[in-house]
Structure formats: structure tokens, C-alpha cells
Amino acid sequence: MTAALRTYEDINTRIEGGDVVVVTAEELSVMVAEGGLHAAAREVDAVTTGTFSPMCSSGVILNFGHSDPPIRMQDIRLNGVPAYGGLAAVDTYLGATSVSKARPEYGGAHVIEALLRGEQVRLDASSSGTDCYPLHDIKTHVTLASMNEAVLFNPRNAYQNYSAAVNTSPRTIRTYMGTLLPRMGNMTYATSGQLSPLLKDPSFRSVGLGTRIFLGGAQGYVVWHGTQHAPAVREVEGKPIVGGGTLATMGALREMSPDFLRAAFFPGYGVTLFVGLGLPIPILDEAMAAAAAVPDTGLYTQIVDYSVPHRDRPSLGVVSYAELRSGSVSVGGCEVPTSSLSSYAKAREIAERLRDDIAAGRFLLQKPVWTLPPTGGRRTLEMG
Q: Any idea which residues carry the catalytic annotation?
């Protein structure tokens, strides 16, 4: 670790004083290329990142308020989409990927977006009834404004790195990586490369419980490491492949915007929610600046064949994000067209908006209570 240049307190004092120097990770890469790491690290106080990508492990905790007479809701549907009925009387969790039986292309993500747009949502709930909750059924409409609480709580967001996907089989396959054409007819990827939040602080020195982030258009927080947190770094074909750390995040849904939370349907796969997320990185020392400045040419992922069952999926090579963003990649002598499930333009917008909020004194950096664990892993569910 290099010598300290500044602390969180130093940076927040400069934010409050209006003289903080904050740039996006994309801008920092240019600064380092033109003027060197040493100078950039001493000039820049903080760096911002961004991603806007499908994040299936997302949802909302809602409290509707009590009816008169009251009901203990057990079977709950919002616009026909099932929500979880195993919480307290009028609490529920609506997952982004939960779908309506009548309309499988419509799901929890669409309900979340509808609420954000101020629309009325149909609430149908039933109960076996108790002495203190005698009502058996309720049919009504709710809005975001009418509820007691509405909290976005996402168990797994902002994958640090994700494999690029191809399909070597002779048939088209439908996946959470989009439609993959036969015989490597296309390649999809889902990470914003040099703007990707956890790729720019790969050791999680500034990320953990309590870290303040841009989430869905508002300020939110990291509340734990995300599910399937697997951040190990390894070398493949001589290239460093940064692992798959993840974040669990939370924020007030009422403060968010449908510009940064957007429902989507992937044919043959299902419903998902595009989430806009940005992470501010304090430049505490030169090592943090070096990590945050790595451009797309120095960030790599694997190409994986999604036509093979998950446990046995082979790697077909290593590719940089610069190559992925170029529009085509050579695999086995074949040029394969590439496309991103993430919006780089939206990621840039998020990073720039976060940069501007910090510069204007609207967003202070929060030192985490503890940082994300440097290790983790994914266990395989045994059948039978």
C-alpha cells in the first residue's frame, strides 16, 4: 500500500468547502495517460463510477398500512404479480422477477416502475383470518404515495465482472444474457468496463457496510456483500481476471426515478429490472488511483459457452472490454459481433451525475463500517 495522501475527513471537508476535485473513472484514465499517475493521484480527491444493467436479484419491501377491519395478508398480488406473504400483516417483498400467471411478460419489475411513475397499482390480498385480523379479502388500489413504506432492497447488484456469452450449439438459445445465436453468431456482455463500480476498487478498500452510493436516481447504501459474492482474482491466459464481487443495496424507493430503474422482459427467459448504480471512490493513496484509472484495454473477462450446462461451461478465451466495445471479437479465427446488455451511455450519465452531486456538496462520502470480504464463493446445490 502506498503512502496516504488524504482521508475521508479531508475529502468531505473539501466537498463542504466547495473545492473538491472529483472526476469520473473514464476521465481519470485520460488524466493518468496524459500526465502520469503521480500527478493525478495528488490532484484528484474522488472518482465516480456507474453501471446501468439488468439486475434480477432486486425488489421492494412495501408496507401498505392497515385496513378497517384489518387483514393479515397471506396471498398477495400486485397488478396480478405474486408478492411474498410471509411477513407481518401488511408487509410484503415484491421481487423484480416475479411474474403474473396471466401475463408472463409482466412482472415485479413492471410494478416497481409503475409505482415510480405515480400509477395506481391493483392490490388483491386474502387471508385465513384471525381474531385480531378478521378480514379475509381485500381488493383495492395503492400508489407509492399511499403506502407507509417503500424500500428498494436488492440482495445482489453490481457484479464486479461477468463473463461474455456465446452459443456454440446449432440452435438459438434464450438466456439472462439475452438471445444467443447458434454457432457463435453473436456475443453479449453485461459490465460497463472502465466505469464498472467494483472493477475500479477491486480490493474493496472503500466499499462495505454503510457505503453511500447512487442507487436508482437517489442516494442509497451498501448494506452487506451481495449473494454469490465471489471476488477471487485469477490469471487466465496470462491476463488478470477480476472476480465476481457483489453488493446488497438499499434505498428509499420514493426518492428514485424510472430513468434509473427500468423494467425489461427477455424473451424465453423472463422479467428483470435494469438498475442504475454509481459508486464514489475516495483516492486515499496512489494505489487507489492506479486501480481506478485502469482503462478498458487493461480490464478482462472470459468468453463462456452458454450452450453447455452451467457446471461444465468451458472458457473459450479471454477478452478485454476495449475489444468487446469495439463491436467484434475474434474467437477461433472467427469474427463474432458483440453487444452489451448494459448501457454504457447510461453508466456514463450516472458517473457524471454523481461527480456533479459531489462537486456541488450534495453528496458526502461515507467510510464503511467494515469493508466487503476479500474472499467468497458459489456453492453448488446437490440434487436429490
A: 132
